TrEMBL record:
Ranges for domain HTH lacI-type: 11-65
GO molecular-function terms, A-Z: DNA-binding transcription factor activity; transcription cis-regulatory region binding
A Pfam family recorded for this sequence: Peripla_BP_3
Organism annotation: Streptomyces taklimakanensis
Tagged with keyword Hydrolase: no
The protein's name: LacI family DNA-binding transcriptional regulator
The keyword Transcription appears for this protein: yes
InterPro entries given in the database record: HTH_LacI, LacI/GalR-like_sensor, Lambda_DNA-bd_dom_sf, Peripla_BP_I
Keywords recorded for this protein, A-Z: DNA-binding, Transcription, Transcription regulation
Gene3D superfamilies reported for this sequence: 3.40.50.2300, lambda repressor-like DNA-binding domains
């Protein structure tokens, strides 16, 4: 026999309790897997759930358990950069794939203004999510410290500094940049320039450090005329290449701290009459899809972007679970990079 409420309505917790001959609280304990329920009562409640076709309300269950079953993926960048930069889509794919087999809901949040940051701060302070994944962190970003102060489990993509206290997942940016520039000097290039990322980001500082390490290893003097700060955008790469050519018309190689900037630099080099790689060799960073579709194909430092996203999600789930037992897993992870050689260098 099947019992249900009025036509078109889902069975309620009260109806399950009445059908099983127990109280509403007992049904809740069975649904939430509590141990203090007899086998006989548990079986009766489970049979009632099956007979009635009852589907527990996940939101109510989460509230009762002190959780929300939701994770926020926060990107403090404008939507134009989100959709133009392959790095972000790779991180999102990795996070999504890791959460696919869990009950966690992923909330994508863009923070473009101080007002939006304050609104998000109020949202998380009310503990409306179980954890936060924070991408593209600048040195002066107050969000990581705020999240830590309210004991919100958080994992960063990248770091704000070398002594970052918040758990993070990063790639070995310094080694990747060093390999790129060693490749260029090993090919006989001597006036090697670089277009950095924004230098208020630790990732950009590390890639600049790798560039300088490789120059010293090759016995080349550093020339600040060969260093221009970019912004991880295509137009920024174009502007930086134009500035470099104005400062050092004899440059014979450029290492860009992202593939997107390298695309802009490539366009500017061509427009100024420079052949790539005959006159100027070019290397990017990320090994995104764009690197394979430039002409010539772009030599690039591969960072495992999707694996970084998956690792971030795993680390955050571990932090959330550890909090339930009174622990706090604060481990971080740095993934290796690999230079992928193509025709541009």
């Amino acid at each position: 026999m099947t019992v249900s409420g009025r036509r078109g309505q889902r069975p309620t917790l009260e109806q399950v309790a009445a059908y099983a001959g127990v109280g509403r609280g007992t049904v809740s304990r069975v649904i939430n897997g509590a141990a203090n329920v007899s086998d006989q009562t548990r079986t009766a409640v489970q049979q009632a759930i099956a007979e009635l076709g009852y589907v527990p309300n996940r939101a109510a269950r989460a509230l009762a358990a002190g959780s929300t079953d939701a994770i926020a993926l926060v990107i403090p960048e404008a939507e134009t950069r989100l959709f133009a930069e392959p790095y972000f889509s790779g991180i999102i794919r990795g996070v999504s794939s890791e959460l696919a087999d869990t009950d966690m809901q992923l909330l994508l949040t863009l923070i473009r203004t101080p007002k939006e940051r304050d609104r998000f701060a109020q949202y998380v302070t009310a503990h409306r999510v179980d954890g936060v994944l924070l991408v593209s962190v600048h040195a002066d970003d107050p969000l990581p410290d705020l999240l830590e102060s309210i004991e919100m489990p958080t994992v960063l993509s990248g770091r704000r500094s070398g002594d970052e206290p918040v758990p993070y997942v990063d790639c070995d940016n310094t080694a990747g940049a060093r390999a790129a520039v060693e490749h260029l000097t090993g090919r006989g290039r001597r006036a090697v320039a670089t277009v950095t990322g924004p230098l208020d980001m630790y990732v950009a500082q590390c890639r600049l450090d790798g560039y300088r390490d490789a120059l010293r290893a090759a016995g080349l003097e550093e020339d600040e005329r060969l260093v221009v700060e970019g912004d991880f955008t295509e137009e920024g790469g174009r502007r930086a290449a134009r500035e470099l050519l104005g400062r050092r018309p004899d440059l014979d190689a450029v290492f860009c701290a992202s593939d997107v900037m390298a695309v802009g630099a490539l366009a500017e080099l061509r427009e100024s009459g420079h052949r790539v790689p005959e006159d100027v060799a070019l290397v990017g960073f990320d090994d995104s899809a764009v690197a394979r579709h430039t002409e010539p194909p772009l030599t690039s430092v591969r960072q495992p972007i999707e694996e970084m996203g998956r690792s971030m999600a795993r680390a955050l789930l571990d932090r959330i679970e550890a909090r339930k037992t009174g622990r706090d897993d604060r481990s971080s992870r740095v993934l290796p990079t690999e230079l992928i050689r193509r025709a541009s260098s």
